[in-house]
Amino acid sequence: MTSDAVPAAIAPPPRALNSLLWTVPLTALWTWLLYAQPVLLESGVPALAARLTAYGLIALGTWLGLERTDLTPSQRRATWLAIIVPFTLWAAVAWSAAINGVFRTGYSQLPLLPAAIFLPLFVGTPLLLLSKRVGQLLDAMPTTWLVALQLYRVVGSQWLAYWLLGRLPGLWALPAGTGDVLTGLFAVTAATALASGTAEGRKAAILWNMFGLADFVVAITLGMIITPGPFQLIIPDGPNVGLDGYPNVLTPAFVVPSSILLHALSLRQLRRRSRSGARDVAI
Question: Going by C-beta distance under 8 Å and a sequence separation of 6 or more, which residues neighbour residue 109?
Fold first, then answer.
């Protein structure tokens, strides 16, 4: 799609596009480093560091957002714990299961990895989208936070590095890796556009959310039909690095559903702001 095909009403302002001047080179350099130094990929340290950083930012952002509400201190603490404790337990269970090989093909006749993706969504989505207290948090929190946070998606460039090294089939790695990288790169762009407080910026953020969700639909669908199991329809040529093993399996088992929930929260927040007509405050 060319820039001429994008309606002017939804095109982000030049200031937002300028964010690509530093995010694109850094992402390209990081991808090259992973390709040149495969030991980084094998260690799993970069991806795990990104996940821990995202977890810390979610915990901190939730607390700072609650401090902006008119809730009492005890209500803020209770709400924070009601969000972070289940989130932490979920991360711990997924992490432990991944380390112990629970998600590996053949471990169980049950589709445990698909369950790890969809079960948190079935449980978490209605709770987060219907909760009145979460709505208060979203009303107080700057809309830019939930968007810019997903800059961590550029870590998906690891799938492109695996493909370049011949360790993953391009059928999955190219669309999944490219979609992740583009979502991460444009997270800062969409957040900057959103900070302008204009209708165009809001539309850009909505489109970014929809693109990020579409990326997961493609990655999950392709992953299920090429992975050995009850849903496999295609046997890809070439080697497969083993996406069902630790630490790579943490991406579908935890990062994917948690990122989808962040997209859902961002869309709910943007809808609430649109209804109230309140102007976002960006920090």
Answer: none
How many C-beta atoms surround the C-beta of residue 186 within 10 A? 27
* Contacts of 83 by beta carbon, 8 Å cutoff, 6+ apart: 62, 134
The Cβ of residue 102 has, within 10 Å, a number of other Cβ atoms equal to 19
pTM for the whole thing? 0.88
DSSP 7: -
Q: Which residue has the tokens 């079960």?
A: 119
Distance CA 228, CA 117 (A): 17
Residue 21 CB-density burial (10 A; 0-12 exposed, 13-18 middle, 19+ buried): exposed
> Taking 80 as the threshold, does the pLDDT of residue 4 lie above it?
no
Please write the tens of the pLDDT for every residue from 120-139. Answer: 999 999 999 999 999 999 99
Q: Which tokens go with 107? A: 């471990």
CB 280 within 8 A of CB 143: yes
What is the predicted pLDDT for the residue at 3? 39
Q: How far apart are CA 242 and CA 114, in angstroms?
A: 16
Mean pLDDT (the chain, rounded): 87
CA distance 67 to 50: 26
Encode pLDDT of 252-283 as tens digits: 999 999 999 999 999 999 998 887 654 444 44
Give start and end residues of each alpha helix (H) in 37-156: 38-43, 45-67, 73-99, 112-130, 132-140, 143-148
